[in-house]
Amino acid sequence: METLKKMKLNYVIEAIVMIAIGAVLIFWTEASLLIMARALAILLVIAGVIFVFSYFLHKERSIVMSGGFAMGVIIAAIGVWIFLKPDTFTDFIPKLFGVFILLSGLMNLGQTISLVSYRYSLWWISLILAVGTIGMGAFLLFNPKDAKEIAVTIIGIFLVYDGITNLWTISRVSKYAKRVNQEMNAVDVEAVVEDVDKK
């Protein structure tokens, strides 16, 4: 049960963050595109600089270290390019979010299996929500033909939807896992009482 509580907290925080990001994408679409591109660019530059500094900090000059140095330069260069030309990069954003939402849908599918194992009668609702999320992710991944702004608004809607469905699903899993645990404890207590009576 302790593990379940930690999982529930993680899922709730993740869902709230997703809903918040989704709302930002819906209401500040154009700004969100540039912010996402430049934030990623900064992260890439930082990662590249770390690789380069790591090369100079080590006394050994092995092939692996040289490869890390080259990788750092390439990563930093890509980061600079994205920062200077964010519009070119934003064409890939729908696909990146498509992968993320698709993976989230697959996780929801795993939670549905948990609901089935807990004998929750409305498990099929979770299944529908999971399939819907997977479908949304696949749509963004394979059909990013619309304008970037429209795609980002759709991404925002999908993230809000995914966050809400995650909250609903984890609340059901938590509730019925607790019920199953109580039933198992009750059975154990009855078994102990019966054993004592026999003695």
Q: What is the compact description of this entry?
A:
The chain has 199 residues and is mainly alpha-helical. Helix content is 89%, strand content 0%.
Secondary-structure blueprint:
Elements: H1 2-27, H2 29-57, H3 63-84, H4 86-89, H5 93-117, H6 123-142, H7 148-198
Would you mind describing this structure in some detail?
With 199 residues, the chain is mostly helical. The chain is built from seven helices and no strands. The protein has helices at 2-27, 29-57, 63-84, 86-89, 93-117, 123-142, 148-198. Helix 1 crosses helix 2 and helix 2 (29-57) crosses helix 7 (148-198). It is globular and about 60 Å long. The model is unreliable at 189-193 (pLDDT under 50).
- What characteristic shape results from the CA principal axes? globular
Distinct helical segment count: 7
- Give the termini separation: 32 Å
Low-confidence stretches: 189-193
Q: Compute the gyration radius: what is it? A: 24 Å
Key features of this structure:
199 residues; mainly alpha
